[in-house]
Design a protein that fits this description.
300 residues; alpha/beta; six-stranded antiparallel beta sheet; 10 helices; 13 strands; SAM-dependent_MTases_sf; Methyltransf_25; transmembrane helix; Class I SAM-dependent methyltransferase; transferase
Length: 300
């Protein structure tokens, strides 16, 4: 997609705002930003103005896949992440291949790769357009679903995947625990939930979080993100802007990302019916180290 097409996509989904208004939100005190930018309770839902819509997908496609290796392609990243999933599955299940639920699956890049490797995978997402892309890419078993209410029988899966910061969208922490309870409900005894991300929760919880991020999208276009940790909500209140040269910014809907430390995962995992939580992080010089990747494993 060229920049004219990107602009048309962003204009359909983001709101045009004045430069001074955007600059104020970029620089104002964190407390003021958190008040103005607090998202709605349902910011994550599907719909014409959904955050996880067309504009989100097109912007994400231009992000560097790994700061430690800017040349890596999405296909290479997907294979690397699938390798990680397969390694963990092998360690946990032995030679038996687990039946997998990928929720939310997005456009199906992990599900498609795992299907290619002959795993039995069901992919679910709330966004119908993402599911359409997933089906077109070869992920045939797809369904629309929300994490708190999975249309799945008890004990239907061995492994639940939740990849790339896809957990922690609810403003009410109790809803996050309900999602974990659903993960536990659909797992067979001895099953595993794998939650993956790269948000530095420790930095947020310890007051070391860097609020501002600038990412070049090419041809002078900038993507700006401000993320402010709000202790009362237990996560990051966020806004982003796309700025085309010589034009006023486009501003995204506000969104939210919850940040749990290791003890939180342990406590809430047990509340949802899981056993001990294991948190895995890459070695200092291994794949994923540049992104501060982590994996939480919850055993059923």
């Amino acid at each position: 997609m060229g920049m004219d097409a990107l602009k048309a996509t962003v204009a359909r989904r983001f709101a045009r705002v004045g430069t001074e208004d955007a600059r104020h939100l970029w620089t104002c005190p964190a407390e003021e930003f958190a008040t103005v930018a607090r998202p709605s309770d349902t910011w994550w839902k599907a719909g014409e103005q959904a955050y996880f819509g067309e504009a989100y997908r097109e912007i994400a496609a231009r992000f560097p896949r790994d700061p430690a290796n800017p040349a890596i392609t999405e296909d290479e990243l997907t294979r690397r992440e699938a390798d990680m999933i397969c390694r963990i599955a092998g360690e946990h299940f032995g030679p038996r291949r687990p039946r997998i639920l990928d929720i939310p699956c997005g456009t199906g890049r992990h599900a498609s790769e795992l299907l290619r490797r002959r795993y039995d995978v069901v992919a679910m997402d709330l966004q119908e357009e993402s599911l359409r892309i997933a089906r077109a890419s070869g992920t045939t078993t797809c369904a629309a679903a929300e994490m708190r209410h999975l249309p799945v029988a008890d004990g239907a899966f061995d492994l639940v995947l939740n990849m790339w910061n896809s957990f922690g969208y609810f403003l009410d922490e109790a809803d996050e625990i309900e999602a974990l309870k659903e993960f536990r409900r659909v797992l067979r005894p001895g099953g595993l939930a794998l939650v993956h991300g790269d948000l530095d929760a420790h930095a947020a919880l310890e007051g070391r979080w860097v609020q501002h991020m600038k990412v070049p999208l090419g041809d002078g276009v900038l993507f700006l993100v401000r993320q402010v940790f709000v202790a009362a909500l237990g996560g990051l209140v966020c806004l982003s802007w796309v700025i085309f040269p010589g034009e006023e910014p486009f501003q995204s809907p506000a969104y939210f990302l919850r940040t749990w430390g290791d003890a939180d995962w342990e406590r809430h995992g047990r509340a949802a019916g899981f056993g001990a939580a294991r948190i895995l992080r890459p070695s200092a010089d291994g794949p994923g180290a540049g992104r501060r990747e982590w994996v939480v494993l919850l055993e059923a």
